[in-house]
Amino acid sequence: MQKVKQTIGCIGTGNMGGAFLAGLVESGTVSATQVLASDRDRDKLRELEKRLGIRTTRDNRRVAEEADVLLLAVKPQILDRVLAEIRGRPGEDTLVISIAAGFPTSLIENLLGGKPAVVRAMPNIAAQVRKAATAICAGRWTSRSQVKLARRLLESCGLVVEIEEELMDAVTGLSGTGPMYVFIIIEALADAGVRMGLSRPVATQLATQTVLGAAHMVQQ
To answer: What does the CA dihedral 205, 208, 211, 214 come to, rounded to 10 degrees?
Structure first.
C-alpha cells in the first residue's frame, strides 16, 4: 500500500492517541518521521519516541502549525482549552480529526475559527489492537477528498464507517462502549466454566475463542 505523504500531527498521546499513532506507523501508512506528537506527559512522549521513532514536543501550537493532518486525541473535558490554545494555527488546508466524544463538528469549527476542515471520529478501545470499530462524520467545510484521507488514516486501526453526525450518540452507545459488554460476557462464560471444574486459563481461552468465532460467523 502506498504511504500517505502528509505530515501527521497528534495532540494527546494517551490510550487512544497512542494506539492510532502506533497503527499509522506500524501498518506502514506513514513513516515515523512524518509524525509529530505532543503531550504534557514527558514519559509518554519518550516512550513513543523509543517505540515508534516519531518526533515529539510539548508545544501544541507547533504541532498545529506543522501538521497537514491534525489528530485531536485529548480528553473531552480539556478539548475546548486545547482548541483555544491552537486557534488560528492550523492552515486552511489542514484536516482536523477529533476523537473526543461529545464534541460536535460545529463547536470544533467555531473554537478553531475560520473555515477548518473537521472530521469527527468515534473509535473504541480495540484501536489498541488495531481492531477498532470507528464511525466518522464530516464538518461543513470538509471536502470528500479529505473525508477519504481521514478514512484511510483511521483504517490503520480497524473498520471505519461514515454516518450522519446526529447518529454519533448511537455509535457511542453501540460500538464506543460495546467492548465493555463483551468483556463482561467473556468473563461470565469463563466463570461458568470454572464453576464446572475448568481451570481459569482454559475457561478464559474457550470463552474468548467462542466469542471470536461467533463474531466471525456473523461477518460471513
So the answer is: -50
